[in-house]
Amino acid sequence: MGIVNKQYTFQDKDDADPTQVNTNFDDLYNELNGNIDEKNIDFSKETLISTIIDEIKLDVKEMIYPVGSLYFNANDGTNPSTLLGFGNWEKFGKGKVPVGHDPDDTDFYTAEETGGAKTHTLTEAEIPSHSHDSGSLSNNSTGAHTHTFSDTSSSSGYHSHSGSTNITGNHDHSYSAVGYNYNAGDGIVQRSDNGDDKRTYNTSDNGSHSHSLSINSNGSHTHSVSGTTSSTDSHSHTISGSTGSTGSDNTHNNLQPYITVYMWKRIA
User: Does residue 95 register a pLDDT over 60?
Assistant: First the structure.
């Protein structure tokens, strides 16, 4: 603002020496316009009212934004000292969101305390308690069933088999036979059908003995086997082990929904 003219005559027509002008007016003009020549000060009513209004606006702004206050702007990133015309400001909370003070929570008890992270990797202690069902580890029951098989034994080469019966000790064998009648008159022998004519006879005692036997060699050969196993009824099988691992141990996004604005803090 340039130098303004100061009138020597007030509206009540009383002349006044410039040196007798109220120092409050000088201070007011000096603050707004810099040091000016007292002889060139404009004391018109319009100028005084405009100056007072501007001073009031500035006082109100400073009351709204005392030192320590935050200023937000969604479009203009200009320093508030330029936009508002007062104070010293610095950027505040870069890349962070404000949280309200909570006297009952130590994480949010101290002003300007920081915390949290954009990404996070869960620890084992942070994974919710859970379990896995048997899933594919348990095979399905196949119901009653049988298995067929067919195979050939390996060749045993040229061979024979031999052995002997158990020894039964000293013994004889008994047997019965139908008797025969001799008719001396007719000179013939007739078989009798009368059961009373059956007689029992004993072989002679051969003493304690056994019998030897041998099987002729069949030469080198194999045996073929085939058949069907018996049914085992419906059943299942128990499987031991554990499920395979999954996951990649990568960090996950830990951001809340957000919107970016310019934040400033008044420091003086």
Answer: yes
Q: Where are the domains of the chain?
A: 18-64, 67-120+252-268
The phi and psi torsions of 64 (rounded to 5 degrees) equal: -70, -35
The whole-number pLDDT of residue 3 equals 44
- CA Rg, the chain, in Å? 63
HSE-up (13 A, CA, CB side) for residue 257: 0
- The pLDDT confidence band at residue 89, using thresholds 50, 70 and 90, is very high
- In order of 111, 185, 259, 265, the CA distances from 108 in angstroms are 8, 144, 21, 19
Report the residue count for the chain.
268
pLDDT digit string, tens, across residues 193-207: 555 555 666 677 767
Residue with token string 């395979």: 244
pLDDT for 71 equals 95
**Across the strands, what pairs with 217?**
none
Phi-psi domain of 192 (left: phi exceeds 0; alpha: psi -120 through 50; beta: other): beta
**Angle at 250 (CA atoms; ends 249, 256), nearest 5 degrees:** 125
- As beta bridge partners, residue 152 has 224
Distance CA 21, CA 42 (A): 12
